């Protein structure tokens, strides 16, 4: 495991930052860490980076403490809302960070060209950062995170300031890193973006993990789609018991097991519903997220 936490807990006084977080990330895995604002995502990431000390529990990067300098050289980090020194050029900024990483001059020169080319900023390497658009600054911050050829990369909202083309380019970078065996720990509110690249996901709310697992498994067999004419009283009854989603001429019931379907169908038919179609469906990550955060019908953990 490149990252492994066991019952990681962090309190701020009496306030919970995160509690009993146990998860693992392997080489070449894209791991999405999701949750609403204030859920505990930043607390966990800062503890994983050694910026905060846990109240209890453990976290290891490459089997060692996050504070180990050799470990830190294997880690890249793109924080959310990063502020870059506007008086520097892109090349100057990368050279500064390269010196902090103790990169030899020959390798540093090569890496600067590689990461700026990869983020499509090579032609603007001599421009002051103050002349960059928000999207260009975001890509430059990603270049900084990639400079040391990390084996574990933390990305906090990496596409938030990018246009659709920029988001596609960042997705391509992330999938390229996966092919190279780099582990990517991804935090994003753009769930559709996460769904395109993530191998595994954990959803945190109020400091605790509410759902986790392989994304394909979490989204498979997550409910049923019912099309038909359903009396309002029956609809309201179902909505009180299950997390529901809208569908043309019907509705989706999330978190319904195969064993529950016959009883639901009997209830609908006896209640006067005209059912035209019933079939399982694969839920979107957004529906899984809402179900886990709202706590309806319990997401898989």
From TrEMBL:
SUPFAM superfamilies in the cross-refs: P-loop containing nucleoside triphosphate hydrolases
Going by the UniProt record, its keywords in alphabetical order are: ATP-binding, Nucleotide-binding, Transport
- Signal peptide per UniProt: none
Quote the Gene3D superfamilies the UniProt record gives: P-loop containing nucleotide triphosphate hydrolases
Q: Which InterPro entries does the entry mention?
A: AAA+_ATPase, ABC_transporter-like_ATP-bd, ABC_transporter-like_CS, P-loop_NTPase
Q: Name one GO molecular function term.
A: ATP binding
The segment(s) forming the ABC transporter domain are: 3-231
Highest taxon in the source lineage:
Bacteria
Family affiliation: Belongs to the ABC transporter superfamily.
Record PANTHER family: ABC TRANSPORTER, ATP-BINDING PROTEIN
What's the protein name?
Answer: ABC transporter ATP-binding protein
Taxonomic lineage: Bacteria, Bacillati, Bacillota, Clostridia, Thermoanaerobacterales
């Amino acid at each position: 495991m490149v990252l492994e936490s066991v019952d990681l807990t962090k309190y701020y006084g009496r306030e919970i930052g995160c509690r009993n977080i146990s998860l693992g990330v392997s080489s070449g895995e894209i791991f999405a860490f999701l949750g609403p604002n204030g859920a505990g995502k930043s607390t966990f990431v800062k503890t994983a980076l050694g910026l905060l000390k846990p109240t209890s529990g453990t976290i290891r990067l490459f089997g060692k403490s996050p504070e180990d300098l050799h470990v830190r050289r294997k880690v890249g980090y793109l924080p959310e809302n990063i502020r870059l020194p506007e008086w520097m050029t892109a090349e100057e900024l990368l050279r500064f960070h390269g010196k902090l990483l103790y990169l030899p001059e020959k390798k540093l020169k090569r890496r600067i060209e590689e990461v700026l080319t990869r983020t499509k900023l090579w032609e603007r390497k001599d421009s002051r950062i103050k002349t960059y658009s928000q999207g260009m600054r975001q890509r430059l911050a990603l270049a900084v995170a990639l400079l040391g050829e990390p084996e574990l990369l933390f990305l906090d909202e990496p596409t938030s300031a990018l246009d659709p083309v920029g988001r596609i380019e960042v997705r391509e970078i992330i999938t390229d890193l996966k092919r190279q065996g780099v582990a990517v720990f991804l935090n994003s509110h753009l769930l559709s973006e996460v769904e395109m690249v993530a191998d595994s996901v954990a959803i945190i709310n109020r400091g605790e993990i509410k759902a986790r697992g392989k994304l394909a498994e979490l989204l498979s067999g997550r409910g049923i789609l019912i099309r038909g004419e359903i009396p309002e009283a029956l609809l309201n009854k179902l909505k009180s018991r299950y997390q529901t989603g809208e569908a043309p001429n019907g509705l989706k019931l999330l978190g319904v097991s195969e064993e529950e379907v016959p009883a639901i169908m009997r209830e609908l038919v006896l209640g006067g519903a005209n059912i035209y179609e019933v079939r399982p469906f694969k839920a979107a990550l957004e529906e899984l997220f809402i179900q886990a955060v709202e706590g309806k019908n319990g997401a898989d953990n």
